[in-house]
Amino acid sequence: MGSTTETDRGPVLLCYDGSDTAKRALERAGHLLGGDEAVVLTVWESLGSAILRNLPSGETEFGREAKGIAEDVVD
User: Fold this and answer.
1) 74, 68, 18: which is closest to 49 by C-alpha?
2) pTM
3) pLDDT tens-digit map of 15-39
4) Could you give the CA distance from residue 72 to residue 75 in angstroms, rounded to a whole number?
5) Closest C-alpha among 44, 17, 11 to residue 30
6) 3-class state of residue 12 by DSSP
7) Residues 54, 67 contacting (CB under 8 angstroms)
8) How far apart are CA 59 and CA 61, in angstroms?
């Protein structure tokens, strides 16, 4: 096994969440990488999934209704 050089490495993984800060970070990474290869990863969460993670208490009428709506959206 030889030593790894910069030309041996694979693409750089960059993560992007849609924010202005992430956009600026991608632009900066582009300058730093020059013409090197990069992969940009974006992870998306559905509205229903986000609601299910942050539901109000199921002990209230609103909580029970929100859960039912969120489950319908996810389905």
Assistant:
1) 74
2) 0.50
3) 998 889 999 999 999 999 988 999 9
4) 5
5) 11
6) strand
7) no
8) 7
